[in-house]
C-alpha cells in the first residue's frame, strides 16, 4: 500500500471515529431498538468500521464470489439472484475501478440462467466457478464451470461438472478442487449437504456427471442441517483450508462450523463440529482462512456481521456488525463472501435476505465493502 493511501485511510478512520463519538442518545437508543423484530434502517456501525469500496448499478444487484486473479485484481461474481431479469456476470475490480470481465456466461439449458457463485483460479491458470441454480430449479441443475484464460483474457466457458443441487464455494488445493454443495440431499436426508472434490486430470478428461442423492465417489463427506426458525435447510457453504491442510466449512442454515481432516491419500480421516467460544454464530456464508495466522474470517449473513474464528482454540470475536441497512457508506448489507488480500478484507454485500435475517430487504445501493484487519 502506498503512503498516500495509508494516510488517507488513517484520516478516514480518525474522521469516522470522531463522527461516531458524536452519536446522540437518541441514535444510541435507536440502534438498540433494531434488536426488535421490525428494525429502522441503521446508519451506524455497532462493531468495527466497514468502508464502502464500490457501488454497483441495478444490473449488478447481488454481488457474491471473489477470486484473486494472477494480475492482482479481484474477479467478482454477480449471480443477480435478487433480480435476475439482469443476466449474471463476472466483474473485475481493483480498489479504484470495477468493470465487466465476462458478460456472456452460458445459461443452463433448462433454467435459461447463469448463476455464478464462488470462483477460483486453478493451477492451470483457468478460472473455475460454482453455479447455484437451486433457486431456479431444485432438481440438480447446478454446475462447475471453467473459463479458459489465455494471456490474462477470459475466453470460452465450458461445463466441467454437472448435476450439483446448489454448488456454492470452491477452493483449489494443489491439483484438486473442493466444492461445497449446500443441498446435496440423500434418499434418507432431505437436509443434506456435502463437500465434493475433483482432480484437475479428471476435469480435463471431459465433463463429470454426478449421481444425485448418492454417495457419489466425488463426495468427500456429508452434513445434515438442523433447520431453525429461518426455515432454511441449506448446509455446507463457505470453504477453505488452514496452514496444516485441514478444511473448514460452515452451515448456512444452522451456523455449525465443521473441521474436516484428510488422510495422506486425500480420503476423509475425520469430520467434527467445532466447539466455538465467545459467541454462537447462527449462520455461516462465505469464509476465508488467513493461513499465516490460522484465523477464519466468516460471513455471519443472518446478523450482518463478520466473525473471526481463531482455529487454534475456537474463540469467536466479531470484526464488524451493524443493523438493517441499505449498504450505503459501506455498512454491512448481508455479507456473503470475503477475500483477504494483504491486510485488506474485501466483502460482498449479497443483500438478498431470508426470513428472520437482520437485513430486511434487497435494496439499492448494491455494494462492496472492505475492512483493513489487524494482524
Ligand atoms: Ca434439502
Ligand atoms: Ca443494498
Ligand atoms: Ca438491504
UniProtKB/TrEMBL annotation:
Alphabetized InterPro entries for the sequence: 6-blade_b-propeller_TolB-like (IPR011042), SMP-30/CGR1_Lactonase (IPR051262)
In terms of PANTHER family, this protein maps to: LACTONASE DRP35 (PTHR47572:SF4), LIPOPROTEIN-RELATED (PTHR47572)
Q: What is this protein called?
A: Uncharacterized protein
* Natural source organism: Hymenobacter jejuensis
Amino acid at each position: 500500500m502506498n503512503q498516500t493511501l495509508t494516510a488517507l485511510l488513517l484520516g478516514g478512520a480518525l474522521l469516522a471515529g470522531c463522527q461516531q463519538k458524536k452519536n446522540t442518545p437518541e441514535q444510541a437508543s435507536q440502534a438498540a431498538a433494531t434488536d426488535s423484530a421490525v428494525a429502522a434502517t441503521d446508519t451506524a456501525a455497532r462493531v468495527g468500521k466497514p468502508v464502502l469500496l464500490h457501488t454497483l448499478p441495478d444490473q449488478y444487484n447481488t454481488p457474491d464470489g471473489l477470486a484473486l486473479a494472477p494480475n492482482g485484481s479481484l474477479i467478482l461474481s454477480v449471480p443477480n439472484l435478487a433480480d435476475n431479469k439482469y443476466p449474471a456476470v463476472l466483474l473485475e475490480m481493483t480498489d479504484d475501478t470495477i468493470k465487466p470481465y465476462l458478460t456472456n456466461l452460458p445459461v443452463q439449458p433448462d433454467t435459461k440462467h447463469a448463476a455464478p457463485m464462488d470462483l477460483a483460479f486453478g493451477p492451470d491458470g483457468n478460472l473455475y466457478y460454482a453455479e447455484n441454480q437451486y433457486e431456479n430449479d431444485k432438481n440438480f441443475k447446478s454446475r462447475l464451470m471453467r473459463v479458459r484464460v489465455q494471456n490474462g483474457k477470459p475466453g470460452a466457458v465450458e461445463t466441467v461438472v454437472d448435476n450439483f443441487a446448489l454448488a456454492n464455494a470452491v477452493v483449489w488445493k494443489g491439483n484438486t478442487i473442493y466444492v461445497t454443495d449446500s443441498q446435496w440431499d440423500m434418499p434418507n436426508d432431505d437436509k443434506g449437504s456435502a463437500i465434493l472434490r475433483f482432480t484437475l486430470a479428471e476435469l480435463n478428461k471431459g465433463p463429470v456427471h454426478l449421481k444425485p442423492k448418492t454417495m457419489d465417489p466425488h463426495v468427500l463427506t456429508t452434513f445434515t442441517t438442523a433447520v431453525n426458525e429461518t426455515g432454511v435447510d441449506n448446509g455446507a457453504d463457505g470453504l477453505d483450508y488452514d496452514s496444516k491442510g485441514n478444511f473448514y466449512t460452515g452451515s448456512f442454515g444452522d451456523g455449525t462450523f465443521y473441521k474436516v481432516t484428510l488422510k495422506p491419500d486425500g480420503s476423509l480421516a475425520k469430520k467434527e463440529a467445532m466447539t466455538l467460544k465467545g459467541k454462537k454464530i447462527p449462520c455461516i456464508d462465505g469464509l476465508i482462512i488467513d493461513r499465516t495466522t490460522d484465523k477464519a474470517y466468516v460471513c455471519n449473513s443472518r446478523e450482518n456481521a463478520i466473525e473471526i474464528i481463531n482455529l487454534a482454540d475456537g474463540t469467536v470475536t466479531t470484526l464488524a456488525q451493524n443493523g438493517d441497512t441499505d449498504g450505503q457508506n459501506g455498512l454491512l448489507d448481508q455479507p456473503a463472501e470475503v477475500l483477504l488480500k494483504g491486510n485488506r478484507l474485501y466483502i460482498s454485500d449479497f443483500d438478498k435476505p431470508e426470513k428472520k435475517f437482520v437485513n430486511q430487504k434487497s435494496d439499492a445501493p448494491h455494494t462492496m465493502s472492505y475492512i483493513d484487519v489487524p494482524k
